[in-house]
Amino acid sequence: MKNKLKKVIAYVLSFMMLFTMSAMNISSVSAASTGSITVHTGKHDVNGVNFNAYRLMDATVSGNKVSYSISSNFTGFFTEELLNGTTGDDIDIKAYNYIKANVSTTNFQNKLKTYIATNQISADGAATGTTDTKEYTIAGLAYGYYAVIPSGEGYTPSFTTVKSSNAVDVYLKGKTPDPEKTINNKKYDSAQVGDTVDFKVESMVPNMTGYNQYYYIFKDTMTEGLTVSKDTLNLVVKIGGTVVDTSEYTLTVDKTNRIFTVEFKNFYTNHAKDANESLTFTYSAVVNEKAINDTNTSTNKAEVSYGNDPDHLTTGAPSEVKVLTHTLKINKVDEQNKPLSGAEFALYRNNVDSGKLKFVDEGNGTYRIATIDDETTTDTLVSPEEGVITVKGLSEGDYVIEETKAPDGYAKLKNTINKTISVDGNAPQTVNVEEKVTNKTESWLPETGGMGTVIFTVVGVVGVLAILSTYFKKGKKREEA
To answer: In terms of domains, do 259 and 168 share one?
Structure first.
């Protein structure tokens, strides 16, 4: 009986220990899965302003890796209609890509605020501004991607990911016409020399209440790696989605310094009624050979100047983007990994039907993508003595490598090689990829009809002649006898 009682007590204690450990683990996971957002308001008067945090997407975090899924409160916001045209294998990925492309736009922010108000979505956390305090912390937030929306119409929302117990900082931005520039709907992108890239800058019509005149100037400065001209600019200006007639502004292009400006005429008269409407500029530039030498610090920027006094305009913070080119190296070797010279290749973008890419030969196995202005070009890449061909000025994407001629004494590759240049993440980075191409030499095949047969034939004939000679000599001796 005592032994049974001891066993029961042992089982109960074991269960209690297991439950306690599980509770501790649950508690630690829960504690580790919340964080906070600190809103910095600077010099803005935020007395009475509410800062509400809404979790648009849940986040699962493991070290430096994160995966997002739509939060339950916003499944009705990220509809198939909203995400139409956005890439992705499922709705979570589509929502992720949609946010990346649209988060800074007035259109996205207004849609989000309307959805929250219409559906009475409860905030996941909130803070209220006072007269003196300049920082406000919203705590106890589960991991995820948040919109911090100030009450009223004086300030724009902020967006950030809560991914650890450390506070995430956001900085309040007043409704000023500071620009937000993107390239191909991204902050960073890669392109091939000769490609046309599309830019979009979003600003807004400032509030001109209290003035009887107002000025607005847009300015964009390109890097040396981008060619800008009136012929290729394709500028379109819109206010609230309506195209602004070209007669309402003066366009100036400085090709030498790669700068163009848009200066509005009679801005107050024409657009005072459009206060807080979106003001967008879309335009294009061509990537040239100098983009190859751009570094990660070489950006192109947009900025706006505005105000009622033309001699004392306010210039807001510039918005910068980066366009990169990439490098492909073809390493030509034999079976012993020794470099091979004299191999010839063609390179295709996407597939062989696109036609061979054309290059400028810079010497010693180095080539760059040719532009329409280059007079001397080639579509053949030749491996130098060191065996390494370097091709500069490529974009990310798929390429096909075709060996068109093998070095003397080696067999040419029968199949083409597919190569993908990819960029990991939406951040500025250069990518160098390498492809090792090995050629084989083969042993001699067996030969027939060589000297060995001739020698045996000659020996045989000589032998027959010797026998006949002996025979005739013996016959002659008999006759003489």
So the answer is: no
